[in-house]
């Protein structure tokens, strides 16, 4: 039986929770795999190696930098879950700042902390086999990935932009119709274009699509009245480090 | 060590207390001399990087503090920013927020009851193990949780980190037709929630009581969820705007989560048992009846019975959601305008695991100049340590392994926002 392990680094737990949120599929999945390590769900911890490891969260401490190496060594296929694991997450906002100053804002005694100056994706430390993007991930993509790995095939994960999904769902374009700023053209599909469905511009939860046209997007955002600073801030949220170059170009 | 007015000690987000922790117990001459609950979760510095963001951004950003209770973060952030900008939401939009929040109470409480807490009482390492023997029970829990998630998805646009919430209201309000299928689902969920109360009421509860002061929002006339004044069982009552006059935070060397205390009074507990103890009379008749049948009195001071309170609150949240859907009329506009202005705003709501306070300072352009977030887990931590000291003192004859398991269960009573609370304890007993 395939053994599955779930690991957490700096994150909000929302991506692992997406597995527990598969209410209709969870017990079926549990019949098909042996859950060997999943602290959010079970006290039982079985020793490795593990066929498939799902990793949530980013690397922000020296101890975690060492721990991910051990997990990689104990794992057959390693899949990263979500914006923290694939792009450093929102906590990567420290990468453009002074982490000591950040710590002093939050803690009276920052010297009690042992943290790295950066928040980095898992792939910056070890080889990663597949990446699920999103803040949070889409549980449909998670199930597709697990089903594919159980069947011994590659998961079908889109790399095109949100605009494709948005059009397929017949949503009215929020930029064209309402002048709302939208990162859809440069953002990876996967969420189901849920924000434009609500009349809201995409804010980039899933990070950059393959080959985004940053210059065209910058012009589009400027046309909605955004300043260079607004654009930078727009990019600098949940996938700040993945959008890094685009944000710099735009400003 | 530190004082509330010292801005350097601001607690940051809840996510830091998710993840791994350790407990150190020192025993000298057969007596427990020190108990420390250590929380290792790496800091993520939300309060630092919120500075410089627009006043419209904290609801989306702070949602990322916790994947289990993002709505609570969005609601407290909205309340605080609207307070800073002098905006009050019209009743229809406020009701819609309450409806969304009911969804989060349902999914979070049911996650905790079925997947995190109940396996302890039944002797299973997980709900998945329980499902091998009693699949029907776990299926009931998952179906009930799904009803909560569906509600968050329909009103909030996504189950984890909803996208439909904004300062001033929503991006789009649901059509009555969107809510009709939900109502049918919630009718079924109500029976499942009542069955859940009966189920957990039958668990074996250790005889353990605390006498901590308890703190929660109260709203005379109805059970407080998304607003209220702060009240304690010790008789304190104050407006949310006075929160920082009464709650002080300290940093301790052994934890990345700050400890909160009531000024001049000491540690306290927030969470479902506190809400129930302060507001049980405002529950619906059906929820009160279920509570009474489950053996709950008007107060709940046995932390093990918190699972029963969560189940009762789930009944209430399902019923309240049905009531709100039945009386729903789409508000004429999805959001009121919240013009930026310089000022300080404070907001508190009842996250599933307790009172969640936010404060933002805005400049005239609407940029955040400082942020402070006081999550329930940091408020509870000192009281939990106190309980653990007494708990361990009565169990020193147990092996370390057995004691660890019992301490884990005891900690889970408080539903700390440690998603991996099912196995987060590394117990060190120094019996020297």
UniProtKB/TrEMBL annotation, chain A:
Every NADH:ubiquinone oxidoreductase-like 20kDa subunit domain range: 12-149
UniProt keywords, alphabetically: Oxidoreductase
Gene Ontology MF annotations: iron-sulfur cluster binding; oxidoreductase activity
InterPro entries attached to this UniProt entry: Hydrogenase_assoc-protein (IPR051349), NADH_UbQ_OxRdtase-like_20kDa (IPR006137), NiFe_Hase_small_N_sf (IPR037024)
Domain of life: Bacteria
Name of the protein in question: Coenzyme F420-reducing hydrogenase gamma subunit
Species this chain originates from: Paractinoplanes brasiliensis
From TrEMBL, chain B:
Top-level taxon of origin: Bacteria
Organism: Paractinoplanes brasiliensis
This protein's name: Coenzyme F420-reducing hydrogenase alpha subunit
Family (UniProt): Belongs to the [NiFe]/[NiFeSe] hydrogenase large subunit family.
Keywords carried by this UniProt record: Iron, Magnesium, Metal-binding, Nickel, Oxidoreductase
Binding annotation for Fe cation: 69, 420
Gene Ontology MF term list: ferredoxin hydrogenase activity; nickel cation binding
Keyword Transmembrane: no
PROSITE patterns linked to this entry: NI_HGENASE_L_2 (PS00508)
Gene3D superfamilies according to UniProt: Cytochrome-c3 Hydrogenase, chain B
Keyword Ribonucleoprotein listed: no
Signal peptide interval: none
Binding-site residues for Ni(2+), renumbered to this chain: 66, 69, 417
Entry binding sites for Mg(2+): 47, 373, 423
Needed cofactors: Fe cation; Ni(2+)
Cited InterPro entries: Ni-dep_hyd_lsu (IPR001501), Ni-dep_hyd_lsu_Ni_BS (IPR018194), NiFe-Hase_large (IPR029014)
